[in-house]
Design a protein that fits this description.
The complex is a heterodimer of chains A (267) and B (381).
Chain A (H helix, E strand, L loop, with lengths): L7 E12 L2 E12 L3 E6 L5 H8 L7 E6 L2 E2 L5 H8 L2 E4 L11 H15 L8 H14 L16 H12 L6 E5 L7 H17 L3 E5 L3 H7 L2 E6 L2 E6 L1 H6 L3 H8 L1 H11 L1
Chain B lengths: L23 E6 L2 E8 L4 H8 L5 E10 L1 H13 L4 E3 L3 H13 L13 H38 L6 H11 L4 H24 L7 H39 L2 H7 L4 H40 L3 H11 L3 H7 L2 H17 L5 H33 L2
Parallel strand pairs in B: 2-3, 3-4
Antiparallel strand pairs in B: 1-2
Helix pairs in contact in B: 1-2, 2-3, 4-9, 4-12, 5-9, 6-7, 6-9, 7-9, 7-11, 7-12, 7-13, 9-12, 12-13
Classes of the chains: A alpha/beta (267), B alpha/beta (381).
Chain lengths: 267, 381
């Protein structure tokens, strides 16, 4: 699959983000293609999460164009933005589940919205909504009993899965993941990588993933984008990354941990 | 596809906001239900309506889109209707269907148990045991506080003096304006009500005794304790509870800092020190309010009020009032700290425990005051 003729689902042009005098992004361009799993890496403070927040509209950029699924994401037409929001799902770092709701109720929140804002045909009855939420919970690899638990009763790994289940609730085209494997044990992280890989293939998801985890990059990313010097320095596959001779990129992909990850991926 | 006889029952719906959501329709073809278009979440109702027909064979080769909601409807249909088969599933859709079908839990057959009489009784029993247990825990907290206080006295270096001073400021100094204003207004109300009643008997001058005894014995300290319960019990619960939520309390334990020592002792001790002072301020302020109103309403001059107060009111009333302050302080502090430590990991429980702490503290203060009244009456003080 060559990148050139594939459909671009996220197109960023000339993004500029700044907090006070501190410029985080300047002239940042990035294309994300349909169906791919893109891993975004970069040192601390290079604005990986800020970039994610910018695309989903939580952070208003100082300048630049954001086009998601062919729609200008910075439009002031609130209906269009709302329609767009329902076509992507976001999983925040620690799941960001609503702590006063059970996991099932959390997953039902976006589904409720379908019923509330929709035409008469889109109304979901309670039973269907429960069943769909349970399905998403199962798809995320959580055991059935997890649906009745409150977020505080779950482990960190399960909270992340529940966050993923909520992100998947509306069968989005794009899923944004913020550090999906951070804070997970290696086994849990590897399972999560496989889960993302499997779901992105089966459901045709496009995945935009901010990560630090070299194993995740190997295990589930089709393409990697490196953030440095306030923009996307380079994008490409893992093999292409190994060829880049920018010092930071070289250090990142050739450091001892990278070699270990590479070795384990080759097994 | 074979020959298509168009005996269609077409369920057609134009999608509103979403151009990518194509329409969905279904028709009967040679005994098979032929689905066409997008079997997605937004068309789920139509899809389910179409599946009501109970057809055995469902032809999916004309589907343009299938998402997990559509796949769920088809998968549950296949489980529900015996002998149902799905044909013509295209590769990308087959993946989705496969994933959803394997994720679907095996059908459960335990309906929610009905609540019987025994269950209701059990609920009452649990509530009773729960409150008994809470009572026991409160006494345990009193014990913890006293024990840690004794340790602090023996090892003054372990005592958190800065925290104590800080809490004294928060609990005591910052509460002075509201307590003083409240007591002043109570004095005014008492003088006003007392004067209208006592005037009928020409016993206006006894309004001084009325104000003095009621403010000094009961109202000054009781209302101060109620205000402090509202202000301080809630802030103790919220502060300790949010520390509990963010695992700060666990971090303290792990670092070898005793939470009871660092959090509970300074807070309760601050209340113990401050509540009598606040009570005294309330007494003075209440008397001033009463004096002010007596002067306006009855023409009892401040000098006369003072004389009458000193001559007619025994000093023991002040002590009877203020002796209750430390007990109220202990109740408020222990209830607030205990509720804070009961907070679980979510925001909801923080709010619930905070309001519960305020209600419990005020209620227990009033109960204690009633017990004191009976006690003093029996003793004849």
């Amino acid at each position: 699959m060559s990148g050139a003729e594939r459909e671009v689902v996220i197109r960023l042009r000339g993004i500029r983000n700044q907090f006070g005098t501190q410029v985080v992004h300047d002239g940042l361009d990035l294309d994300v293609y349909r169906g791919e799993v893109l891993g975004v890496v970069g040192g601390s403070g290079t604005g990986k999460s800020v970039l994610l927040r910018t695309i989903v509209g939580l952070q208003e950029p100082a300048a630049g164009e954001i086009e998601v699924l062919g729609v200008d994401a910075r439009t002031h037409d609130e209906d269009k933005r709302q329609a767009l929001r329902r076509r992507w799902g976001v999983m925040f770092q620690d799941g960001a589940l609503f702590s006063s709701l059970t996991v099932r109720e959390n997953v039902e929140v976006p589904l409720r919205d379908v019923a509330a804002g929709g035409a008469e045909t889109a109304r979901l009855d309670d039973e269907t909504r429960h069943a769909l939420a349970d399905l998403k919970i199962a798809l995320s690899g959580l055991p059935p009993f997890a649906g009745d638990k409150y977020p505080s009763e779950l482990s960190g790994g399960m909270r992340k899965r529940a966050g993923l289940a909520r992100a998947l609730a509306l069968d989005p085209d794009i899923v944004f993941l913020d550090e999906p494997t951070a804070g997970l044990d290696p086994i849990g992280a590897a399972e999560f990588d496989r889960l993302i890989r499997r779901l992105s293939r089966a459901l045709g998801l496009t995945v935009f993933m901010v990560t630090h985890d070299l194993d995740s990059l190997h295990a589930c990313c089709d393409r990697i984008a490196v953030l440095a010097e306030k923009k996307v320095l380079v994008t490409g596959t893992m093999a292409e990354m190994l060829e880049v001779d920018h010092p930071w990129v070289h250090e990142y992909f050739h450091g001892p941990r990278a070699r270990a990850a590479l070795a384990s991926a080759a097994e | 596809m074979g020959s298509i006889a168009d005996t269609t029952a077409e369920a057609h719906a134009a999608r509103r906001d979403d151009p990518a959501d194509a329409a969905f329709s279904s028709r009967e073809v040679d005994g098979a239900l032929c689905l066409r278009g997008a079997a997605t979440l937004s068309n789920l109702a139509e899809l389910q309506a179409a599946l009501q027909s109970g057809a055995r064979r469902i032809d999916l080769s004309d589907l343009s889109r299938l998402d997990s909601a559509g796949a769920w409807a088809l998968a549950t249909y296949r489980r529900r209707v015996e002998g149902a088969e799905l044909i013509g599933l295209k590769p990308p859709h087959a993946d989705i269907f496969e994933t959803v079908d394997t994720a679907l839990a095996p059908p459960e057959d335990d309906p929610a148990p009905r609540r019987s009489m025994a269950d209701r009784l059990e609920g009452i029993g649990r509530a009773v045991v729960g409150s008994a247990r809470t009572g026991g825990e409160l006494i345990a907290y009193l014990g913890i506080f006293l024990q840690r206080l004794a340790v602090s006295i023996r090892h003054p270096s372990r005592f958190h003096l800065t925290a104590l001073v800080h809490h004294c400021q928060e609990v005591g100094l910052k509460a002075v304006p509201i307590v003083a204003l409240m007591a002043f207004l109570i004095g005014i109300v008492l003088a006003f009500q007392g004067s209208t009643q006592l005037r009928q008997f020409g016993a206006e001058v006894f309004v001084v005794d009325l104000i003095a005894i009621s403010v000094l014995r009961e109202l000054g300290i009781l209302l101060t304790a109620i205000i402090v319960a509202g202000r301080t019990a809630s802030s103790y619960t919220a502060a300790i509870g949010s520390m509990k939520m963010r695992e700060e309390v666990d971090a303290m334990r792990a670092l070898g800092v005793d939470p009871a020592h660092a959090l509970i002792v300074p807070r309760i001790l601050a209340l113990l020190l401050m509540l009598p002072i606040l009570g005294l301020i309330a007494n003075v302020s209440g008397l001033i309010g009463g004096m002010f109103m007596s002067w306006i309403e009855l023409g009892i001059s401040p000098a006369m009020f003072r004389t009458r107060l000193v001559e007619g009111t025994d000093i023991s009333h002040v002590f009877v009032g203020l002796v209750k302050a430390p007990f109220f302080a202990l109740i408020i502090g222990i209830v607030g700290c205990h509720a804070g430590m009961q907070v679980k990991g979510n925001a909801e429980s923080l709010g619930m425990m905070t309001s519960r702490a305020v209600v419990a503290a005020i209620f227990m203060v009033i109960v204690a005051d009633a017990l004191f009244s009976i006690f003093f009456a029996e003793l004849g003080i």
